[in-house]
């Protein structure tokens, strides 16, 4: 099925230096609904926290570093031309698989 939708994004802070952002796809119509949303992150809190034990306990550092699921899923600018576009593109790309829909416009 084809759906007409629009996408938008927002960031943790203003400007082009935000480390985290959120994007969403909304249905167009009189009662718009959120169809999908995604979080983009340029920083992982676990990786950052691990830096404190990197040299004092290298074994534990390596063990945790290799086992954790890193939160970083965006590399590049935080601006509209990069983070928002990349996030919206991901949501559009996965719409067929997750919801069996294709965004028509």
Automatic annotation (TrEMBL):
Pfam families: Mutator. Residues 2-103 form the Mutator-like transposase domain. This is Mutator-like transposase domain-containing protein. It comes from Rotaria socialis.
